[in-house]
């Protein structure tokens, strides 16, 4: 199944579900900070769109409230978003990495972790 393209608000709703598990629309809305919290109806409409996109599903009904859970994994959604971002740079990661370095958002610890992952991946490739 192809992963759906998610808007910023949809990602925020998915984040609430990934962090807290199954939630009602009201609980999703309450997961947003008080300052700038979207209206209940905005969350409701967006949740129904996410359901149509098969990013989440209804798991049960308690009284009048439907309870929803995430169908797609956080890693999969983040990976798709990163792939879309890289496609804006022709698939090249260097401009993104340079920006992260220049803005101080990429630390030496991040680089060491990435290097470890690359070494592990290279080891798996050799084993094949």
Explain what this protein looks like in three dimensions.
The chain is mainly α. It has 2 domains: 91 residues, Arc Repressor Mutant, subunit A (Orthogonal Bundle), CATH 1.10.10.10; 36 residues, no CATH class. It contains 6 helices and 3 strands, in the order αβααββααα. A 3-stranded antiparallel beta sheet has the order 1-3-2. It is elongated and about 55 Å long.
In short:
The chain is mainly alpha-helical and 128 residues long. 59% of the residues lie in helices and 12% in strands. This is BlaI/MecI/CopY family transcriptional regulator.
Describe the SSE topology.
Blueprint: H1 8-20, E1 23-24, H2 25-30, H3 40-52, E2 56-62, E3 65-70, H4 74-87, H5 94-102, H6 108-127
Antiparallel strand pairs: 1-3, 2-3
Label this structure with key terms:
6 helices, mainly alpha, Arc Repressor Mutant, subunit A, single chain, 128 residues, three-stranded antiparallel beta sheet
Strand order in the largest sheet: 1-3-2
Main sheet summary: 3 strands, antiparallel
Number of helices: 6
Radius of gyration (CA) equals 19 Å
Q: Could you name the CATH topology of the largest domain? A: Arc Repressor Mutant, subunit A
- Percent of residues in helices comes to 55-70%
Q: Sum up the overall morphology in one term.
A: elongated
Average pLDDT for all residues:
93
Whole-number total of structural domains: 2
């Amino acid at each position: 199944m192809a992963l759906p393209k998610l808007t910023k608000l949809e990602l925020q709703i998915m984040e609430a579900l990934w962090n807290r598990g199954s939630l009602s629309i009201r609980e999703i809305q309450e997961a947003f900070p008080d300052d700038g919290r979207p209206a209940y109806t905005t969350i409701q409409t967006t949740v129904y769109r996410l359901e149509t996109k098969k990013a989440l599903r209804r798991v049960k009904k308690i009284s009048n409230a439907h309870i929803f859970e995430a169908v797609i994994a956080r890693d999969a959604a983040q990976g798709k978003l990163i792939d879309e971002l890289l496609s804006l740079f022709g698939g090249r990661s260097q401009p993104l990495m340079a920006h992260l370095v220049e803005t101080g958002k990429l630390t030496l610890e991040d680089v060491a972790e990435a290097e470890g992952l690359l070494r592990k991946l290279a080891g798996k490739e050799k084993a094949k």
